[in-house]
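Now for a chain:

_____
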Amino acid sequence: MSYLAREASDLSGEFWTELDTVVVDTAKKFLTGRRFLHLFGPLGIGVDSIAVDDVDKLTEKAEDGLLITAGRKYIQIPTIYDDFKSFAKDLEISKKAGFPIDFSKAVASASACAFKEDKLIYFGNPALGYTGLLTATGANKINKKDWGKGENAFADVAAAIELLMSKSIYGTYSLIVSPDLYLQMQRLQPGTGLLEADRVEKLVEGHLYKSPVLGKASAVLVCAEATNMDLVVGQDMAAAYLEQTELNHSFRILETAFPRIKKEKAIVVFA
């Protein structure tokens, strides 16, 4: 039996194909971290840990005939999941009457997983030892001005890019903002005929993203080259079969993934 245990159910191959499509389409719609982070994987469910290197401290260290790699640690790849249930009667009605299956619960679970993945990317999980982009202790900090006034947003982002360049961090810069900051930039700048958002987006060459996971008044700029950071993926998001109880079917949407930050100084947090 495979890890996803689909063989344990009597559901058809067509059902699983439809469910897979729903999960993938939902994930693509809601995930933001994957839009700018390079993917390392999928490595498969059998890979449960991965090396995380501090690029600035990585070196081989020899002592008394022993050789190790300093600046490297191994982190367990966590499972991100959400469960849902489908009523057997509803599935039977769809099959007999030829109605489309209502996958609303699957969409809700896939959305929840997407939210959890992005939350892990941006904030990590300190209790479990995971670092996120906004919680990295070595990240640069810039005091954010009021982005609803003047050219403050443009000036802050330009200053952040200049800061990274001064530390020899070059590449593609991506700006991720909370929805309220994104809306604050939807205003015309006098004498330019351009929205503040358009000017900022040109600074980052189109790599401007908004994410509700950030809450309010939050923004982060990253140079998300693979040498600086990536998203480690073991099992990509998929649906697994749990069990049939009281005739109804239980499913789990799951993935194994976490952000691997190799160079914290490639991050600028607007505090």
